[in-house]
Design a protein that fits this description.
190 residues; 2 domains; mainly alpha; 8 helices
Length: 190
C-alpha cells in the first residue's frame, strides 16, 4: 500500500516541478484542457462512476483535505466533495486502527511469579488439586482463575522435577508391572 501511494506522490511532485517555469497563462490553458478532458470522460462514462484505487483515494484526500468546502464545491471533480472528505476520514481511521492494534493478539500470559508459585504449591503439597491451590492463592490475595491454575498445572513446561514424588492418583510405570513392563515372577525360568 505504501509503495502504491509513493508512486503517485513522486509523479505529481515531478508534475509540480514542471509547472514552475510555466507562465500563469500556460497554467490556465492547461487547467482548461484538463477540465475539458474531465467533461469528455464524464460524458463517456455516462451513469457509471469511475473506480478509484486505494492509493488514488488516499492521494486525492490528502491533497484536497486542507481546502474549505466552498472551494471543493467549485472544483470540477469526478467525485463529490463529501466523498473526498469521507475518504480522508477513512484514511485517518485506518491509520489510527493500525497504530492502536495490539502487538500480541489474544489474552496476556500469566505472570511468571504466579506460575512459579502455583508450581511450587503443587510440588510442596502433592495431595492438593487445582481448586485447593486456587483457594490458597485467593487467601494470599492473588486473583487468578481456577482454570488458569489448571492450565498451568497441565502444561508440559510445568512438569515436576524428576526427584519429586508423582502426583496423587497417578502411578509411575515402575509401580505397575503389567502393561508397562514385562511381568516378573519369583520362579526361575527353565
Amino acid at each position: 500500500m505504501l509503495l502504491k501511494l509513493a508512486y503517485p506522490t513522486v509523479t505529481n511532485a515531478f508534475a509540480m516541478l514542471r509547472l514552475l517555469p510555466m507562465s500563469d497563462r500556460d497554467k490556465e490553458t492547461e487547467i482548461l484542457v484538463l477540465r475539458h478532458q474531465i467533461t469528455v470522460f464524464e460524458r463517456q462514462l455516462g451513469p457509471d462512476r469511475p473506480a478509484f484505487t486505494a492509493p488514488d483515494r488516499a492521494f486525492l484526500a490528502a491533497l484536497l483535505h486542507p481546502l474549505p468546502r466552498e472551494v471543493l464545491r467549485r472544483l470540477r471533480l469526478l467525485v463529490r466533495p463529501d466523498t473526498m472528505l469521507r475518504w480522508h476520514r477513512d484514511l485517518i481511521k485506518q491509520r489510527h486502527a493500525n497504530s492502536s492494534r495490539p502487538k500480541r493478539p489474544g489474552r496476556p500470559r500469566t505472570v511468571r511469579s504466579i506460575r512459579t508459585l502455583v508450581l511450587r504449591l503443587a510440588r510442596e503439597n502433592p495431595s492438593w488439586g487445582y481448586r485447593r491451590i486456587h483457594g490458597e492463592l485467593a487467601i494470599l490475595g492473588i486473583k487468578v482463575a481456577a482454570s488458569t491454575v489448571w492450565e498451568i498445572l497441565r502444561t508440559p513446561t510445568s512438569t515436576p522435577h524428576p526427584s519429586d514424588p508423582p502426583p496423587p492418583g497417578r502411578t509411575s510405570c515402575a509401580a505397575r508391572p503389567t502393561p508397562c513392563s514385562p511381568a516378573t515372577s519369583s520362579r526361575p525360568s527353565p
